[in-house]
């Protein structure tokens, strides 16, 4: 997004460091009105794990017995806003998700971790779904389709991307999107 705005900014060939910093702070700092920026017990969230960078809470409308959300405390709109520089963050979120599911004694083969891809998101703040399968109904399962890619692509057509798929895409410098990538 930042590069797109820079390239479309006619009359200037570059943006100085102060403008760049201001732009990034406006897009990565907590936003008023963003419900996930305020994720805390005081705000009614059932926080099950927390540190200085992430919060994990139970989903308000769970699709399975254990359905949690991991959110970074800094505001990032969605998985589509991530780049290769965010691989470490996504890997940390994966580790946290597995740690929480370990505490719940969920076997590895019954775990799903991933992100919905805009416009199929309910809250415009990056959040990873951490789930213990099976889903509570076939309709709930349809909300989280995992589609493997073909012909050298990592992911097929889907509005959901598994966390490991997202990491592999980001490592290649590919933007996560609904279309195959």
3D architecture notes:
The chain is of the alpha+beta class and 181 residues long. Mean pLDDT is 86; it is low at 1-28. Strands 1-2-3-5-4-6 form a six-stranded antiparallel beta sheet. Helix 3 (87-103) packs antiparallel against helix 5. The protein has helices at residues 2-8, 17-28, 87-103, 138-142, 163-171, and strands at 47-50, 54-58, 64-72, 111-116, 128-135, 160-162. 28% of the residues lie in helices and 19% in strands. It starts with a helix and ends in a 10-residue tail after the last helix.
Uncertain residue ranges: 1-28
Mean pLDDT over the full residue set:
86
Q: Beta fraction of the residues?
A: 15-25%
Strand order, sheet with most strands: 1-2-3-5-4-6
The tally of strands reads 6
Rg from C-alpha positions? 17 Å
- How would you describe the shape? globular
Short structural description:
With 181 residues, the protein is of the alpha+beta class.
Key features?
181 residues; alpha+beta; 6-stranded antiparallel beta sheet; 5 helices; 28% helix; globular; disordered N terminus
List the helices and strands and how they pair.
Blueprint lengths: L1 H7 L8 H12 L18 E4 L3 E5 L5 E9 L14 H17 L7 E6 L11 E8 L2 H5 L17 E3 H9 L10
